[in-house]
Amino acid sequence: MGAFTMDSRNLLLLVMILGLSQISKAQSPTYGVGRTPTAEEIRAWDISIGTAGKELPPGHGTAKEGAEVFVRKTCSVCHGRTGSGSLAPTLIKSDGKPKSPHPCLTPCVNDSNVMALHAPFATTMWDYINRAMPLTKEGTLKPDEVYALTAFLLYKNGVIQEDEVMDPQSLPKVKMPNRDHVALAPEWKHGAPRLQGYP
Amino acid sequence: MSSKLSGRRRFLRDSAALVGLAAGVVPSAGAQMSPSEAPPKDSKDLIAYGERSHYVKSVRIPVMERMSPDDFGMTFHVLSPLQDSVGIITASSLHYVATHRGSYVPDINPQEHRLMIHGMVDRPLIFTVEELKRLPYVTRTHFLECSGNRAKATHKTVQQTHGMTSCCEWTGVPLSLLLKEAGVQSGASFIVAEGAETVKGATSIPLAKAMDDCLVCYGQNGEAVRPQHGFPLRLIVPGYEGIHNIKYLRRIKVVEQHYMTYNDYGHIAADSRVAALNRQIGPKSVITFPSGEQKLPGPGFYEITGLAWSGSGAIRSVDISIDGGQTWTPAELRSPAYPMAHTRFGFHWAWDGKECVIMSRSTDELGTVQPKRADIAKYWNQPNDSDLQIRGLDNSVFPWRVASDGSVHNGLA
After folding, report:
1. Pairwise CA distance, residues A135 & B243, whole Å
2. Residue A6's pLDDT is what?
């Protein structure tokens, strides 16, 4: 055998080394454009609260405190003094059960889309109140106020008791009425029909 | 007026105009203008940025259910005038607009805008718009469609039945490139994408889709993305329900599971089949001419035309029925058939002047055929009547009824 030939075992080894180097290349940045955000920047920007609630900030609130925040932050101007019957979506069911389990896509001024009854996780409420309320002053509520408002809406819709304290531990554990009536789409795959067997 | 001119006089007049043009002189009495009508001076503004002829009146309209701007001054859902559309590109000014709860269009300075990628990644990253523009980019043609784009019997025009879809040329950086640059960790299965507008709209998108064909776009139809469509950055998620195409994109968080954001929760389903049908649109099409409230002047030749699209890939073929769906004849594709893009079709038609129902159906590259309402009713074991609610995104075959006087009406009515 000459110096430049190799047996199949060496060839295999070479292929493996090349393969590994390709993988390690794929795992390191290729372009080096952009910069690393500071931990503080990430904390300030990251307002996503997952269903497990692990991003929930320290704080707490009760329904009683929430009732007070609801008035003080003028939520009632858009949502109605009783949490229903005004321009913005109904927050507190007015009577009986919601008429339809379907989400409301148009004006949303009815009983069918009460968030405390429709959302499968209380974290969705906390996340949305925190990021998107009140109108024109979005993102200004303090964590205690968001916990209190969430507790208020959950209590008023019969989901929790009036004296239950909502905090990072208790909020994700609230058993929401719609929790068992939600299904996620199957795993998505490129080139697969959106639903096998559907006409 | 010009039809009254004799052939010889018309020849002399047109020749004079041509001579004037050849000499580089503006013709004072051109073919369409009398000597008394001096042409308006060109404006500096229009030299800088052009506008369409004032004779062209095609406009967007708000959906019937809620005014835009509404009582708060917010935009809700605004429909694109598909009846006037030509080709496959929607002018940015006529692209439909939808916001989840109603929103103001934010005024974002692109110099100050940032995109952060963080969560389950090895290297969190933050980009300026200029930095993103340094990266390799692609240009692709994709449609967007709102989940609310479903024809009702009360709708009169194609703008109302189908006007919440539009198609643009989008330019930007593949999201997969940015995610690879950040190094996605094992165990991740979704991303949460978020906008910078006041409500910070966010949705959960499968990581497999994010790594497949999503784009972080700064370009739309040859210029910067328009403010109504997400300036300075918009995420394009080809074929998915419109709400996933996050405007004013400011943050992507790589996460281990679906996050059930407010936007996600708004479209939840109790049945995983409905959830799948909610996520991505199937093959769909609609005839844009002749369509509702248009009128055929009399029997004779017409070119039936319309648009076809699918969330699963390119359109392979379109069929036309002029007898209410009993028989189907292939139409011609009159444009390139790009994946997840509007595709223009045409069909020669000699109308005999009798009442008839015309409809189109498309087939995509997976071989999936656009379903009739009857097929959908059968799948869900429901009666096929006017109460039939199409579950998931509605891609059903849509009929137009041409009356014997040439007037065109919603075939569901």
Report:
1. 20
2. 45
Q: Tell me the pLDDT band of B138, cut-offs 50, 70 and 90.
A: very high
How far is B365 from B166, CA to CA, in rounded Å? 20
**Tell me, what's the pLDDT at A100?**
41
**Rounded distance between C-alpha atoms, residue B409 and residue B292, angstroms:** 5
Say whether A103 and B268 touch across the interface (CB within 8 A): yes
Mutate to test the interface with A, among B273, B284, B389, B390 (most CBs of A within 10 A): B273
**How far, CA to CA in Å, does B7 sit from each of A9, A153, B10, B18?**
90, 80, 5, 16
| pTM score of the predicted model | 0.88
Domains of chain A: 58-176 (1.10.760.10)
CB-based contact, A38 to chain B, within 8 Å: no
Name the least confident of A57-66, B3-12, B242-251, B371-380: B3-12
Query: Which residues in chain A (150-189) have CB-CB distances under 8 A to chain B?
Result: 181-189
Contacting residues for B147 by C-beta, under 8 A, at least 6 apart: A105, B241, B242, B243, B267, B278, B393
ipTM (interface pTM): 0.86
Residue with tokens 């969705």: A124
State in words which class domain B114-268 has.
alpha beta
Minimal Cα distance from A130: which residue of B? B199
Token pair belonging to A106:
């148009």
Architecture of the CATH domain B284-410: Sandwich (2.60)
